[in-house]
Known about the structure:
The protein has helices spanning 3-6, 52-57, 82-93, 112-125, 154-166, 178-182, 204-207, 210-218, 236-244, 292-306, 312-321, 347-358, 378-390, 406-417, 430-440, 469-479; strands at residues 14-16, 24-26, 36-39, 60-65, 75-78, 102-107, 130-134, 137-140, 143-145, 171-175, 191-196, 226-232, 249-252, 260-268, 271-278, 281-287, 330-334, 337-342, 365-369, 393-396, 423-426, 446-450, 457-460, 463-466. The protein has 481 residues and is of the alpha/beta class. It has three domains: 3-93, MurE/MurF, N-terminal domain (Udp-n-acetylmuramoylalanyl-d-glutamate--2,6- Diaminopimelate Ligase, Chain: A, domain 1); 97-321, UDP-N-acetylmuramoyl-L-alanine:D-glutamate ligase (3-Layer(aba) Sandwich), CATH 3.40.1190; 330-479, Protein-Tyrosine Phosphatase, Chain A. The protein has an eight-stranded mixed β-sheet, with helices on both faces. Strands 17-18-22-19-20-21 form a six-stranded mixed β-sheet, with helices on both faces. Strand 23 and strand 24 form a beta hairpin.
Amino acid sequence: MKLSKLLQGIRPKEIIGQDRKITNLxxxxxxxxxxxxxxxxxxxxxxxxxxxxxxxxxGATAIISQKVFDDIDITQVIVDDTRSAMSIxxxxxxxxxxxxxxxxxxxxxxxxxxxxxxxxSIGEAAGKKVGLIGTSGTIIDGKTYPPTLTTPDPIELHSxxxxxxxxxxxxxxxxxxxxxxxxxxxxxxVFDVAVFTNxxxxxxxxxxxxxxxxxxxxxxxxxYYAKLxxxxxxxxxxxxxxxxxxxxxxxxxxxxxxxxxxxNYSSSFNGLKYVIxxxxxxxxxxxxxxxxxxxxxxxCAALTCYILNVSLYDIAAGIKNLKTVKxxxxxxxxxxxxxxxxxxxxxxxLVNILYGIxxxxxxxxxxxxxxxxxxxxxxxxxxxxxxxxxSDYTVITSDNPRFEKPEDIIYDIEQGAKQTRGxxxxxxxxxxxxxxxxxxxxxxxxxxxxxxxxESYQEIKGVKYxxxxxxxxKNFIKNTE
Length: 481
């Protein structure tokens, strides 16, 4: 494809050199090849402008840059924002596949993954072929591929869109992280529906303040990115979005007036039940995952699909058809052992799931959790306080320590745990921590293993070692029978 065609929708400050044939795109100087277009991205730790010469050596025939190089003999396209340009150019390179499908983008601190899977199940109940992109992976034509990032980089994202469009996908539902919005990954296409679940503290290692994080989330809900919005009216930021957005907003909730809400709610270990009222139409909802927070997730998904003209019958069927979401309130029951594995890794997420368990727990709640290294340190003590306040016994352990010492992370968590009367112990080895929790449990007790969900690794000093909470649970229980 000619460079000039790729630049449609871009307003370059300057173009130096001739039009070129482009066969590949990359922002990694090591993976660029002959006739490639290289994007000079400025990151937190590295600057892509420093790798132009390596990209040239490896075959780059043109670059997208925010500054001019006087000593290179390839085409230079100078722009104000390389990240935004990369998103638009990636869409053009794959012939704008997003335009042939209905796109649903889900953002929020908690509930994104579960909500996307519910929307997918509802769409399929309504006869749609649905693709999915998110934390747990990518689903194309019924096949699941391993995850990379919550929201892939634009080059990969539009390649995925192309594959989905080529197999006649009708809907694409995807998680949209605050990072993706801030880093312009979703420039170049428009969501049919943008969905907001909630906003609580997370990712302050990147955004520095909660206000910056909220502003990033809010950016999705404008006509540049979306046609319609579905908003949680019980969330403070959600209500603010409704007041300031320039697109139609539809609301769901349980505490404030909204277009969709639930009544007659009940929950047990085997799931939840309630009656949905959506624009004054009533229908009974049954869902395999318990907890009030999952009532919110189903309300959100139901309203999203309803404004996309799905019937209440198909909505209820789709919700009922979804039996599990890997790593999201995923249960394992063997003999007298009841284990729940969940991805909850924020103070609010942990509070929600623990209150959800308390709704039906007959015995004690034993929680195993840790905090990720090289991430928002401010939430560690808050998580320790929340978990130890709501659990009968807590085992504080490692999550993904990355380049921090597990003991240092655990120390930070303990500062919150010590503010409670809750009983706890610290076991840095996650496998041993899980085994300890299972060994302590009695009949009717519930063991919550939080933080990693369905992750298949533990990241330590730059290496991702194979690790699965669920497999540790299964193997230990099997070997102790």
